[in-house]
Write a structure and sequence with these properties.
44% helix; 3 helices; alpha+beta; 3 strands; 110 residues
């Protein structure tokens, strides 16, 4: 077996170091939309909107569902008066992370 000389090993190490120095820096990428992270964010937003509406005494008697997809909240259901609808939409908009609110609420007819 032939032994490599120290200068040859040194040259090889310098060449390898130069090659690695030219590689681009790799940075972690943020999680793409539609991932588990987004689902968790949507679930958190839904919970916070539901809590905000449930804790407001002016909104008692509303029958509604709250759904969130890609940080867009959808409010579906009925209210006793139009001012309750406006208040529920306004509360949903104040929750951190909400991009917009889709209002599918209606006033009860009977």
């Amino acid at each position: 077996m032939r032994m490599l000389s120290i200068p040859a090993v040194l040259v090889a190490a310098i060449a390898a170091g130069a090659a690695f120095a030219q590689l681009p820096e790799v940075k972690p990428q943020p999680a793409p939309k539609g991932t588990v992270a987004q689902a968790v964010d949507d679930a958190t937003i839904t919970t916070k909107v539901k809590d905000a509406i449930a804790s407001d005494p002016a909104l008692k008697g509303m029958e509604l569902t709250v759904e969130t997809a890609d940080s867009v909240v959808s409010l579906n259901g009925t209210a006793n008066a139009s001012d309750q609808i406006a208040r529920a939409v306004a509360l949903a908009r104040t929750v951190p992370g909400v991009k917009s609110v889709i209002n599918v609420l209606a006033v009860k007819t009977s």
